[in-house]
């Protein structure tokens, strides 16, 4: 008899709990990223933390390799079944906004972002004055060099000018030992174009000004020539420069194993270097990009990432997504006035872009490796965010790779790059 | 033919014809229609604008679009030709070897050969990208043991495509060997016995009996090998991303980049139609070649 009543009470309790349980799973949102599994785990932890105060929202995380991120967004992102939230590279934003794949940020979110992030970063997350995403990471390029190899070659410090750079690259090259002075990158658009662009802006040039390609400038010609000189001198070996779909591969292996003396890379690869080098990571230092003959001071390229919300998602999902993102990137979700997002980013050595996060991580950003990046941020130029930017970037990649492998001269590379860029940007602007 | 018979023919054929129409003919017709339009894959078909043959002129033109497409087309043709040239003789050789009835472990060898075909491409790509590593890869270490210098493999535009071909041959040859073995079982033993009585040497038996009677199997193998090779995508997407210098940028990968990443649906469709037409021409040529041999 007692058993019967126990079952009855249990059933009654279950029926009463049903609406609550259904409400707890009312809104399901998904987050698409290209992060590695250990970073995805941190994001999932943050989502669990958020769920404690927001039990009506369930966040799931899905990761794809960087090489597949844009394709996944393009093929699945715009529909109701696509990811609700996606982390995207700022270069992709103009076309995703034009194609109405991403939703404009609500007024409250836009006001918060405009007040809490530097204006340049906000502008990279906006199209035509409308904010589409909450910025999170900012990446900047600098010269990484191996102090042990420098000491072996009798070089006292990092090169400050292109002449010193070429000289150091030649001294660091030991062909018999399979060692190159300067490591270029190929088979990965950003890995090819960003270091080249950093040298270009440090030579006083620009990729694009007012929507027009500037690769026919004297500064650009000198940058193409620098690449040709380094290749012809044997100071850089393109066969050591390959990258794979996960933005790792021989270019990373060669730097990690001490076969590359210098390389131009962004701050985010700190975790890859630490993993690959162990204690030898202390041999790696960061310096500003050497200044070219037409440049006035060290400059480099920066770019940012942001999280956007799927315009095809339902109203409730969009609302929940913006609320989650506002919390994730807000100043109260992490310790000491930092955001949970900043903590995830700093685990990878990535610079957060929210002003309060930069203050909260002042000590960590002062490390020998990262401080070199922080110091060049002020003079960094944002990589141009224009319609057709991805195609422009891939086309320039092909030209620079052809130059790396000696298939074209510096002069022809410059002519081809400018001709292609004009045609691509004009077509995209139509 | 009676009316009821005609009616039952229609009833029997309609499901298959409808399925083929909806899932094969309709998408093909849609792709051909889209190839004549200016259309973004991110917008509805109603936004497509008719531009005639402009997309085709563009992909065969002199701009970066044309240059990249023509490069991808040539890469695909080279990849396909090399794959077929290597796979067919190897599968015949291995098939003859495994088919020998008095060789111990023949069945085990067949299983081993076929197993490469069952390994998922993601695993193959991961392993082979490490095997090809210029600094730490086993291939270069083995070349070093016999006094040969290391090769750049995937790191050079001169060797990257052939490296992907080797990977493809390794994975596919087992499947084609099984096809050859099936073909060999169809050849009557009496023909070999008669040839042996007439004093024919093994190599004469091969050229006079085995190869001619394997012709239909080899034609089928060639057609499948061509289709498989033209559809290559995974190793390029997973390992080389089309590089270096576009040397492994094959058409399927390029069409995905243009049509999906850049959302240029009209251009992507024009490229797909060109690929389809090229494939049809090659397959027809293979059949025509085989028919001429049959008539001889």
**Largest interface here, residues on each chain?**
A-B, 42 and 33 residues
* CATH hierarchy, class of the largest domain in chain A: Alpha Beta
Distance between the termini of chain A: 80 Å
Indicate the percent of residues in helices of chain B. Answer: over 70%
**Total of helices of chain B:** 13
Distance between the termini of chain B: 39 Å
CATH C-level name of chain B: Mainly Alpha
Q: Would you tell me the structural class of the helices and strands of chain B? A: mainly alpha
Low-confidence stretches of chain A: 15-24
GO cellular component, one term (chain B): plasma membrane
Keywords (chain B): Cell membrane, Membrane, Transmembrane, Transmembrane helix, Transport
Membrane topology (chain B): Multi-pass membrane protein
Protein name (chain B): Sugar ABC transporter permease
Summarize the structure.
The complex is a heterodimer of chains A (430) and B (296). Chain A is an alpha/beta fold.
Structure description:
The complex is a heterodimer of chains A (430) and B (296). Chain A folds into two domains: 2-138 and 304-365, D-Maltodextrin-Binding Protein, domain 2 (3-Layer(aba) Sandwich), CATH 3.40.190; 139-302 and 369-429, D-Maltodextrin-Binding Protein, domain 2. Chain A is globular and about 65 Å long. In chain A, strands 1, 2, 3, 6, 7, 10, 11, 12, 13 and 14 form a ten-stranded mixed beta sheet that branches. Chain A has a two-stranded antiparallel sheet with strand order 4-5. A two-stranded antiparallel sheet of chain A has the order 8-9. Chain A has helices spanning 2-24, 37-53, 66-77, 93-98, 107-116, 119-124, 147-152, 162-172, 189-201, 218-232, 250-256, 270-277, 315-328, 340-347, 355-360, 362-365, 368-377, 389-404, 410-429; strands at 27-33, 57-63, 85-89, 126-127, 130-131, 133-146, 180-183, 208-209, 212-213, 260-266, 284-287, 300-309, 351-352, 380-382. In chain A, 49% of the residues lie in helices and 17% in strands. Chain A has 430 residues and is of the alpha/beta class. Chain B has 296 residues and is mostly helical. Chain B has a two-stranded antiparallel ribbon with strand order 1-2. The model of chain B has no long low-confidence stretch (mean pLDDT 90). Chain B has 13 helices and two strands, in the order αββαααααααααααα. Chain B has a single domain, classed as MetI-like (MetI-like fold, Orthogonal Bundle). Classes of the chains: A alpha/beta (430), B mainly alpha (296). Chain B: It is found in: Cell membrane. Chain B: Keywords: Cell membrane, Membrane, Transmembrane, Transmembrane helix, Transport. Chain B: InterPro entries: MetI-like (IPR000515), MetI-like_sf (IPR035906), UgpAE/MalFG_permease (IPR050809).
């Amino acid at each position: 008899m007692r058993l019967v009543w126990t079952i009855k009470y249990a059933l009654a309790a279950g029926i009463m709990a049903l609406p609550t349980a259904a409400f707890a799973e009312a809104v399901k949102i998904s987050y698409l990223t290209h992060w590695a599994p250990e970073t995805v785990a941190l994001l999932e932890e943050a989502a669990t933390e958020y769920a404690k105060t927001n039990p009506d929202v369930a966040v799931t995380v899905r990761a794809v390799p960087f090489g597949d991120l844009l394709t996944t967004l393009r093929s699945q992102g715009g529909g109701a079944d696509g990811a609700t939230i996606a982390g995207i590279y700022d270069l992709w934003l103009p076309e995703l906004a034009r194609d109405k794949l991403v939703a404009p940020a609500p007024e409250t979110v836009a006001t918060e972002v405009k007040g809490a992030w530097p204006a340049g970063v906000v502008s990279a997350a906006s199209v035509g004055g409308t904010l589409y995403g909450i910025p999170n990471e900012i990446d900047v390029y600098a010269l990484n060099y191996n102090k042990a190899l420098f000491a072996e070659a009798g070089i006292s410090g990092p090169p400050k000018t292109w002449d010193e750079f070429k000289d150091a690259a030649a001294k660091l090259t030991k062909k018999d030992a399979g060692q190159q002075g300067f490591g270029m990158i190929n088979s990965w658009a950003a890995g090819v174009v960003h270091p080249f662009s950093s040298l270009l802006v440090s030579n006083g040039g620009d990729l694009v000004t007012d929507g027009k390609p500037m690769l026919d400038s004297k500064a650009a010609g000198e940058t193409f020539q620098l690449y040709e000189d380094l290749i012809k001198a044997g100071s850089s070996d393109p066969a050591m420069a390959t990258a794979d779909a996960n933005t790792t591969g021989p270019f990373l292996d060669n730097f990690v194993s001490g076969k590359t003396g210098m390389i131009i890379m962004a701050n985010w690869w700190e975790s890859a270097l630490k993993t690959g080098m162990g204690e030898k990571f202390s041999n790696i230092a960061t310096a500003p990009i050497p200044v070219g003959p037409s440049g006035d001071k060290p400059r480099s390229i920066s770019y940012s990432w942001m999280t956007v919300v799927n315009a095809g998602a339902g109203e409730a999902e969009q609302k929940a997504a913006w609320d989650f993102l506002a919390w994730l990137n807000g100043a109260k979700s992490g310790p000491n006035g930092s955001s949970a997002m900043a903590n995830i980013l700093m685990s990878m050595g990535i610079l957060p872009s929210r002003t309060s996060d930069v203050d909260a991580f002042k000590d960590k950003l002062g490390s020998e490796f990262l401080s070199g990046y922080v110091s060049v941020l002020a003079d960094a130029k944002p990589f141009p965010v224009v319609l057709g930017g991805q195609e422009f970037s891939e086309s320039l990649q092909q030209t620079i790779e052809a130059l790396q492998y000696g298939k074209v001269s510096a002069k022809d590379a410059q002519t081809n790059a400018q001709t292609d860029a004009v045609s691509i940007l004009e077509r995209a602007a139509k | 033919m009676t009316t009821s018979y005609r009616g039952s023919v229609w009833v029997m054929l309609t499901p298959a014809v409808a399925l083929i129409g909806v899932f094969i003919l309709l998408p093909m017709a849609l792709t051909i229609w889209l190839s004549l339009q200016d259309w973004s894959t991110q917008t509805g078909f109603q936004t497509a604008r008719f531009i005639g043959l402009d997309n085709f002129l563009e992909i065969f033109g002199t701009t970066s679009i044309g240059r990249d497409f023509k490069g991808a087309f040539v890469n695909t043709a080279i990849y396909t030709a090399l794959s077929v040239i290597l796979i067919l003789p190897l599968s015949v050789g291995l098939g003859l070897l495994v088919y020998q009835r008095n060789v111990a472990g023949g069945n085990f060898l067949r299983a081993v050969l076929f197993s490469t075909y069952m390994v998922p491409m993601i695993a193959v790509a991961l392993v082979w990208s490490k095997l090809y590593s210029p600094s730490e890869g086993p291939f270069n270490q083995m070349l070093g043991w016999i006094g040969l210098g290391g090769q750049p493999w995937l790191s050079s535009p001169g060797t990257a495509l052939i490296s992907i071909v080797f990977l493809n041959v390794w994975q596919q040859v087992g499947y084609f060997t099984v096809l050859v073995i099936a073909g060999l079982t169809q050849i009557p033993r009496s023909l070999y016995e008669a040839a042996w009585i007439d004093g024919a040497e093994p190599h004469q038996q091969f050229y006079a009996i085995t190869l001619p009677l394997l012709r239909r199997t080899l034609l089928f193998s060639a057609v499948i090998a061509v289709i498989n090779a033209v559809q290559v995508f995974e190793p390029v997407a997973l390992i080389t991303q089309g590089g270096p210098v576009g040397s492994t940028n094959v058409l399927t990968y390029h069409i995905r980049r243009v049509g999906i990443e850049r959302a240029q649906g009209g251009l992507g469709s024009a490229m797909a139609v060109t690929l389809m037409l090229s494939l049809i021409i090659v397959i027809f040529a293979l059949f025509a070649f085989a028919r001429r041999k049959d008539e001889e």
